[in-house]
Amino acid sequence: MPAPILTIADAAPLLPPRGGLIGLDLGTKTIGVASSDPERRLAAPVETIARKQFTPDAGRILSLATARGAIGFVLGLPVNMDGSEGPRAQASRAFARNLARLTELPILLWDERLSTAAVERDMIAMDMSRARRAEVVDQQAATFILQGALDRLRFIATNG
């Protein structure tokens, strides 16, 4: 049975109280990966996967999830500024559906509007070189996405 694909709000009451999540920033050439601690308080960058084909890409993602004992994934959904979904969001949903066929871990979709821009701005402010930014931007964007989802999950748990 494929894994469920859920919004953060729908997933919040279904998640166990402990267990880390894997954050994913899906790009056309790379996939940024981040992970959280088991208490789901803090997201940290893991790696950037150079995209090849779905099967090896998914294999690497699932391997990272297994190694970290993850209980689910948070996939950035690149929604347009007006809230509509364009080709990139459709590609992310297709990736989620394909990944769901290979795992039982839930896949949580999180609005990632402007995440890469925010990360780029922060790295420029830290005076990071362009070459170094290019190396880490995707995993930093995955961290930004995952941290936003973690914060929202914590808010829902506290406020209902």
TrEMBL record:
One of its GO terms (cellular component) is cytosol. GO terms for molecular function: hydrolase activity, acting on ester bonds; nuclease activity. Gene3D superfamilies: YqgF/RNase H-like domain (3.30.420.140). InterPro entries: RNaseH-like_sf, YqgF, YqgF/RNaseH-like_dom, YqgF/RNaseH-like_dom_sf. It is an enzyme of class 3 (hydrolase). Its main location: cytoplasm. GO terms for biological process: rRNA 5'-end processing. Keywords: Cytoplasm, Hydrolase, Nuclease, Ribosome biogenesis. SUPFAM superfamilies: Ribonuclease H-like. Residues 19-119 form the YqgF/RNase H-like domain. SMART domains: YqgFc. It is found in: Cytoplasm. Its EC number is 3.1.-.-. CDD domains: YqgF (cd16964). Could be a nuclease involved in processing of the 5'-end of pre-16S rRNA. Belongs to the YqgF HJR family. NCBIfam families: RNAse_H_YqgF. This is Putative pre-16S rRNA nuclease. The lineage of its organism: Bacteria, Pseudomonadati, Pseudomonadota, Alphaproteobacteria, Hyphomicrobiales.
